[in-house]
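One such given next:
>
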Amino acid sequence: MTMVAEMGEKSKLVAQNANGSASAKSAHLSHEIQDEAKRTVRLRKQPNMDHKPENYDDVRTDYHPAVFSALERFLPPDSLNARREIKLQHMSDVISSYLPRGERMRAQRHCEYRERIIKYYQPRNRELYTLNPDCFFVQSFIDATKENTEESFRRIISEPSPGVYAFSMLQPGFCELLIAEVENFEKWVEITKYKIMRPNTMNKYGAVLDDFGFSPMLDKLMREFVTPMATVLFPALLGSTLDSHHGFVVEYSKDRDLELGFHVDDSEVTLNVCLGKQFTGGDLFFKGVRCDNHVNIQNFQEENVNYSHVPGQAVLHAGRHRHGALAIDSGYRINLILWCRSSLFRELKQHRTEFPDWCGECFHKKQARQRQIFDSRKQEILIQRDQV
């Protein structure tokens, strides 16, 4: 999924969000914003730390709102005094300019696709679209996140395999409502004959929750509930810096996806929650964390583990933790998946030369190299003693 999925018509979205509909006045304002934003914006070399940036929490985008607030300090003086909509358009253009033309076109098309769905689709359970912890989560998870310490998180999790963390998370009522919402959306797609974009290249069934209005809720889920846990459990992956997400559901049954092959996720941290319904088989399997250079390297025996998912139970793991789902034997299983990403981790990863601590193969190579250095030094000392 592209990182700038909703930039192209941002000025129109601002006007529509403010008035609830695209009135003639807002349409005129949209054209005015676009005309004013056409001129080239040259960013400052150093941020203006005396400037107080706007709040962009209401902007729907795959970037965290803080990205825009931070970037605003780099705008030239004449742009700093412009209206919020103009500054937002300037910054959107700057971000988009870093994408190849093909990606910008795909981002624009996906933006238009998403906006059409949100405009015409009528949700069945609107209460799902605003995150309410008391109605969504089990009490043990709420208590742990409120305390927000390593000890509180360790109290509620089990670790079936190193780096794979399981815990109770969702209430049965919420799971049922979310399944009903997904079924309602799929029925709407079928009736309207609207094309549905699948979650990824491997799943032929399921839906992207962000595409029909869940983006703000899932962003809050990532920022306020996943990030605190990732900060503690995945420090090497910069779990505290998660700033974008891709949220979707996947479905498994005899007449849908039967299994999911060995793969890694396009995420730093992945949250996988079983919603239901009743099923047998379909266990998750894990085969160790790997960097890009070692994805297909053979795994070590201690890295192999199978995990039986049950409704309401969550699994949190590194996106680069190689995994899949075994074939389902009977019934129907639907899972909520949240891929959480960190732009900072991805930027820093480009500058790493060797031995990332989180890669199992690199870790073993690092240990082997350290043993080699130690043995070599040991041999040198023994030779020196023999010569005395």
User: Anything to note?
Assistant: The longest strand covers residues 244-252. The chain has a mean pLDDT of 81. The chain has 13 helices and 13 strands.
